[in-house]
Amino acid sequence: MGNPSQPLHTRLTELLRCDYPIIQAGMGGPGRSELCAAVSAAGAFGCLGMVKEKPEMIRTEIAAVRARTERPFGVNLVPSVTDPILLDEELEACFAAKVKVMVFFWDVRPDIIDRARRAGCTVIYQIGNLADAIAAERAGVDAIICQGFEAGGHIRGKVTSMVLVPQVAAAVSVPVIGSGGFGSGASLVAALALGAEGIHCGTAFLATNESYAHEYHKQRIVDASSEDTVYSDVFAIGWPPQSPVRTIENSVTRLYSDNLSGHGPDDFELDVIAQDGDEAVCRFSTYSPLQNMTGDLEALALYSGQLCGAINRVRPAGDVVREMVNDANHVLARLHLLK
Ligand SMILES: Cc1cc2nc3c(=O)[nH]c(=O)nc-3n(C[C@H](O)[C@H](O)[C@H](O)COP(=O)(O)O)c2cc1C
């Protein structure tokens, strides 16, 4: 941690040139320019979730963030689940647009880390276990996001943030960021206490006005309690076999309640249940309901972390950031850590 009189000023805020050590997770689908810009404009660090998006869309979204704010932001890609030719185009679109921070996820890819660093980017990798954290540091990343099992969306590891973050913080020298279950000022202070230098929040920013998630998805998060999430790999079409996710319980997880794990994309018939513009969306796909989608939204992947139980309304993303920072300062004062 940096200056003891300014606990929220860490090596992460230095690295990312933002005011607060809070990164908005780059959520493929919901995490577009409106959300990213709102988070960055509030002093945290927004991130475009661009997994599997076409390069034209990436260029447009980067320009749209820059039109809304001059604050720094990053772009998230997931290399190992993306067709190599598309990944190459996505990376080139980011580098040509002079994106300063790339955030990657899933298995550690030294080749991609090296390529992004040679393009001049700061590289952050989200991992889900200690071995991957060590591999990511060895491959040259600038910071490591530790994703715990309580997280929403795709889940890489098996242990909770509380257990993983301190182990990784003790093992690496680059800044560590807690991910999974973080979304309040108290959890930010807890992350700092565990040895992290910031937090990475998906679910907390999913239920905001600016997120591109469909209102139905936002409302399901507001209505859900923490017990309502399910860990499974039944939303399989679009990712490699046995890629687990955390979603809110729905007709699909209920159908497979005795058989939630061990699935791959080839295990399911293609059954179109929704439309994303011209694109057909199938049951069991990794798509979540977005604002422009129509169809059987209930049966899509309603990604959410266990944090949903603490989310009671949809709010502006800037308010979420401001409340986290205010509450963190109150908690620090209560713990006599802030003079
Ligand atoms: C709707 C949703 C979509 C996500 N999409 C991505 C993604 O495209 N890339 C990625 O690296 N992580 C993605 N994640 C996972 C987040 O990076 C992060 O690990 C997770 O949100 C942290 O847990 P939390 O939801 O409790 O904050 C997604 C999470 C959610 C909730």
Automatic annotation (TrEMBL):
EC numbers for this chain: 1.13.12.16
Tell me which SUPFAM superfamilies the record gives: Inosine monophosphate dehydrogenase (IMPDH)
Q: What class of enzyme is it?
A: oxidoreductase
Q: Which Pfam families match?
A: NMO
Fetch the InterPro entries from UniProt: Aldolase_TIM, NMO
Entry annotated with the keyword Flavoprotein: yes
List residues traversing the bilayer. Answer: none
**Superkingdom per UniProt:** Bacteria
Q: Which sequence ranges form a coiled-coil region, renumbered to this chain? A: none
The GO terms describing molecular function are: nitronate monooxygenase activity
**Can the keyword Oxidoreductase be found in this entry's annotation?**
yes
User: Which keywords does UniProt give here?
Assistant: Flavoprotein, FMN, Monooxygenase, Oxidoreductase
Name it: Nitronate monooxygenase
